Amino acid sequence: METNGKDDRLKAPLLPPSDSVSITVYPTSPGKIMKTRTTMFRIGNVKCSSCVTSIESALGKVTGIESVTVSALHGQAVIKYVPELINLKAIREAIEDLGFLVFEFPEDIAVVRLRIKGMSCTSCTNSIESALLMVEGVKTAVVGLSLEEAKIHFDPTLTDSEELIQAIEDAGFEAELMSNVNDGNKVHLKLEGISGDEDFTIIRSSLESVRGVNQVEMDKESNKVIIVYDSDFTGPRSLIKCIQEAGKPHESYHASLYVPPSGREAERQHEILGYRNLFLWSFLFSAPVFIFSMVLPMFPPYGDWLHHMVYNMLTVGMLLRWILCTPVQLIIGSRFYVGSYYALKRGSANMDVLVALGTSAAYFYSLYVLIKASTSESFEGMDFFETSAMLITFILLGKYLEVLAKGKTSDALAKLTKLAPDTAWLLTFDGDENIISEDEISTSLIQKHDVIKIVPGAKVPIDGVVTKGQSHVNESMLTGEARPVAKKPGDKVIGGTVNENGCVLVKVTHVGSETALSQIVQLVEVAQLAKAPVQKLADQISRVFVPVVVVAAILTFLAWFIPGQAAMYPKDWIPKAMNSFELALQFGISVLVVACPCALGLATPTAVMVATGKGASQGVLIKGGSALEKAHKVKTVVFDKTGTLTEGKPVVVSMKVFSPMPVQEFCDIAEAVEANSEHPIAKAVVQHAKKLRQMNSSNLGHIAEVQDFEVHPGFGISGKVSKNVVLVGNKRLMVARKVPISSEVEDYMSESEQLARTCVLVAINGMVSGGFAVTDPVKPEAERVISFLKSMNITSIMVTGDNWATANAIAKEVGITTVIAETDPLGKADKIKDLQLKGMAVAMVGDGINDSPALAAADVGMAIGAGTDVAIEAADIVLMKSNLEDVVTAIDLSRKTLARIRLNYVWALGYNVLGMPIAAGVLFPFTGIRLPPWVAGAAMAASSISVVCSSLLLQSYKKPLHIERARELVDYSESV
Question: What's the predicted TM-score (pTM) here?
Answer without folding.
Answer: 0.60
